User: Fold these one by one.
Assistant:
Number 1:
Amino acid sequence: MFDIAWSEMLLIGGVALIVIGPKDLPGALRTAGQAIGKIRRMASEFQGQFNDAMREAELTDLKKQVDDIGNSIQASTNFDPIEPMKDFGAADASKPAAADDKVIRDAEATLAALPAPELPAPVSIEPAPVAEPDADTKPKRRRKTVATEEPVVAAEAVPAEEPPAKPVRKRKAKAAEVEGGETA
């Protein structure tokens, strides 16, 4: 924007440090940043208003051009849609009705002279022949269905049998002779 080089920025910062002082420099920079932000917001608001005014001016010009084109078309045709309606309600109204009746009668006569449409022949669909199984092959086995419902018997009603007890195994006594003749 201002085309300031790094060396120039460093010189400005050094002068600001000497003039303002190290204690007040952060506050001064914050104030300068807020002022620059306000100026930018005001500039963007002004630019937005200017663009809105330009759009409105363009729209009025465009509307004027469309109206001019519409007026020139209407002037060249000189068509008044109400005039034919005035003629329709006049005392001479029986003539258009008679002409309409004649047109309707001609159309009915033309339709009566046309041959009637023929219906297509009925179509019969026969089922396809089913292949017979060969005598040499065996028929496939079918699965037997298993009844899924089994009678439910309460566990308490059936006495539980205890497995037979295993015989107690006897351990062989090891005789460990100690020098004293004692066994352990």
Note: The mean pLDDT is 76.
Number 2:
Amino acid sequence: MKKLKAWMAEHKKFSVIALCLLLMFTCGSAMSAINVSHHRAETAKEQNAGNNTDTTTAAEKKTKEETGKVELTDAQKEIIKGYDSDTKELIDTLSSSVWSVSEGRYTLKFADDSYVETVNGTPTVHSYAISRVEKTSDGYGGSLYTIVFETDTGTHIVTYTDGSGAAVNSDSKTPGENTISTLTSSTMFAQKNTAYERAEAVANITVKGMNSEVTKLFGGDEKAVTTALSKWCAVHYPSVTEATWQKVVNLDYENGVITTDFKLNDTNSVSITCVYEQSTGEFSFEG
């Protein structure tokens, strides 16, 4: 120790320089560590922001599908501001029921400024505004409307009959016989030049085949399953009256998700998939 002190005393200038270099190295290392930590924190923040954006986008998309709401253009908003009472009444009529063709495989569900078109169980939401309505007699005591729709896919002309059905197969009908309301368009709907008929959906369909085990997986409330399935079928398959459980269940224990299938009693025996979130008690359907 004495020798080290003596050496340091003899080389005092060198010792000071070495000490300064050591301090500079230590400070530099500390600053580098701080910068790395800061960079990692910023990267994680950016990733989280990106994830939050993706989540928000998915949530917004789901909300739009569930509520049937989409963004309107400025032109559509201006048209809507100018609606008269007759146009508003017409929209109320269109929105009061589901419109269906091909035994419910193609449906239309209108709201005030949007409509949901479902093709084989897959819904698509569209915005719209009605820019013009012309009303004439159909010759059978009813009325025939020619409606100009401004939608997110362009301008379309739709023919609406309010009860006589004279615009479709009128030669085979007599006044008051099999009165129905229809919507027809050559461009706006998936089924071109085909009459979508007013479909009064079944309020509560019958769910068959479920046992106590699957009911327990669905939160123990069979009525909740029936209600959720009835609401979905009312829009996508309004003519369906029964759904039969297919007796196969997929359990995702980690995420608490139950997946199973039901077969509907339409002529095509459509099979739909039911997904149940145990944490939220929410049902969703595809098919």
Note: Residues 49-67, 165-179 have pLDDT under 50 and may be disordered.
Number 3:
Amino acid sequence: MSAYDDLMDFQRETEALAQVAGRLGWDQETVMPRGAAHQRGEEMAAMEGVLHARRSDPRIGDWLDRAEAADDVAAANLRLIRRMFDRTAKVPARLAAELARVTSLAQGQWAEARAAEDFAAFVPVLARVVDLRREEAQHLAQGGDAYDALLDDYEPGATAESLTAMFGALRPRLLALRDAALGSPHQPVPLTGTFGEGGQLAIATELATAFGYDFTRGRIDKAVHPFSSGSGADVRITTRTAPDDPFNCFYSTVHEVGHAAYEQAIDPAFALTPLGQGVSMGVHESQSRLYENQLGRSRAFTGWLHGRMTATFGDTGLEPDAFYGAVNRLHRGFIRTEADEVQYNLHVLLRFDLERALIDGTLAPAELEEAWNARFLTDFGYPVDRPSKGCLQDVHWSVGLFGYFPTYTLGNVYAGCLHAALRRDLPDLDAALTRGDTSPATGWLRERLQRWGGLRGPRATVAHATEQEPSEGPLLDYLEAKFAAIYRL
């Protein structure tokens, strides 16, 4: 066997173990008994120790030095294994294991603090997570920007400087559109009523099927914070329900199906290799947001959803056009995952700035709640009334995902570019969407982007699919055209 073959055999075992570790995380969020939290922390630490040892195994360096790439796939595998090997070697094994242990425990403590509306109870473990991630960032950065080193875990090649410039270009037009829409005399009517959990979950299953989710390789469960987990032949999603807000369930489901469909569509030949998963969280988010918003909240598709709602719950009190307005209505709110398309990115920009301050040390964890509330009041114009609607609403910081939040807005930008190209190539798409048939769009995405997994870098992946370099322009143009029509601006 060649050095490349030896390396890939070793890598497939590492990837398989990483999938097992991911399944432990899924279990913790869905069905694990509460009393198992401390033991699960030890289990996660043990798994991370094994994975760290494998990813930094000296034999990898030797194989990389001797391996030759026979084609583009082999070259991409070598590039990604080299990247992981170099990054892992910079982080001490004891730090990697401690991060896994502490963040597993912190996740449960966050959930308890959130339920009790007690930010002070969460501060000690948050401070420990921040300290550990800052230490890791210093090892990775080696004198460079610490936040960029963490960001590189989720969006290789991106920098805080480049994202700040992009976000700066987004912000003025988003604020202007929000103010114009909320100031319009024409305001869509919200959906009202009570909608049973059984009916919501039944429609959620229909939606998942409509968007191409393969239930022979996946399942839907409930969780506090919806997420997708796994790749290849085992890709699971979660959703949540609220009796007075079925859209939360429906669009959380479609969002997570976007993530899952990406993983399920990757070329099976890439399974258990570095190419066998989404290339970055920004590209991943482009799929979930495009499924959720540009497709799922379109006038054509909401007409079909209106029919399913009526068949399941009876008269909603809204005709199809009014239902479309209700789905897309701008509204006051505190929760990022429930935000309308226009204001969503403002929630992300808030988190981006605060987590950079936590990592560079200019904001102490104990000061986070006050800083969050002040920034929210400035950006949205009304005060946060409880921690669960403020700095305790997201799970990300409890599990150490610093650098993750900006990929949500980057994903929206990528989705804007992909949607423009998709509409260019599929001018009759709305005719299919009115029937609840998303296959022209999801098929286009599978062929242009999803099947390639990690073969190309993030921006190159989007550029290959759209045949142009990504920028924020298409997203802003789409939002302004859509909401100008809804609000009759």
Note: The radius of gyration is 22 Å.
